[in-house]
Fold this sequence. Notes:
Layout: E1 10-23, E2 26-35, E3 45-46, E4 49-51, H1 58-70, E5 76-83, E6 93-101, H2 104-114, E7 120-124, H3 135-149, H4 166-177, H5 183-190, E8 196-203, E9 210-215
Parallel strand pairs: 1-6
Antiparallel strand pairs: 1-2, 1-4, 2-3, 2-7, 5-6, 8-9
Amino acid sequence: MTSTGDDDIRVAVSTVIFSLRARPDGDVLMIPLVRRTREPFADRWALPGGWLGGAEGLEDAARRTLGETTGLQASWLEQLYAFGDVDRSPTRVVSVVYWALLRSDLVERQRAAADAPENVTWFDVDDLPALAFDHNRIVDYAVWRLRNKVGYSRIAAGLLPDEFTLAELRQVYETVLGRRLDPSNFRRLLEGSEALLPTDGFRTGPHRPARLFRYNADVEMADRGPLSA
């Protein structure tokens, strides 16, 4: 816990971590929430987080508190916003919020390896309960940012394995955006893109083999993506 001045303003760090989780009807954009064990808002769900240590940076605190509360480490992490409304907590707390992405194939592996806490549950971002503090507002803002940013950057890389098919990439975009995309138009937008590199591998299955692609490591994640104009 840190404080400044006579008003004892405390600084917390929280993280909204997105991943695609499989359901019988398809992948869903979800976030992990932690059930609070103490007041205020005891037994309510909340974003993973904790107090900023006096000798650590903000991003270090975000990674630490995320690992301590969920057993997860993000594939990609970025500062989202600072939330400091006077009435957002019974005591004066400013929360510096990060948003993060994690590949679905790493979620259970990380949690098992870390012997993660049991009071963590994944929720559909479009079907959240009433959360503690102003965390519903924070999640809404993070979802808005993600759905806007996915259209002009290669941020989807944070939700994908190292190699993927174009159909799998399109499915990530569709899940994040919450709408269907025309396969032919999507493929056409990708033609000639420097962000994607074809590999020599193929995904085999009941249909014709599909070529595997990977993201070009020389292209920054914030650079223009396949849905940019």
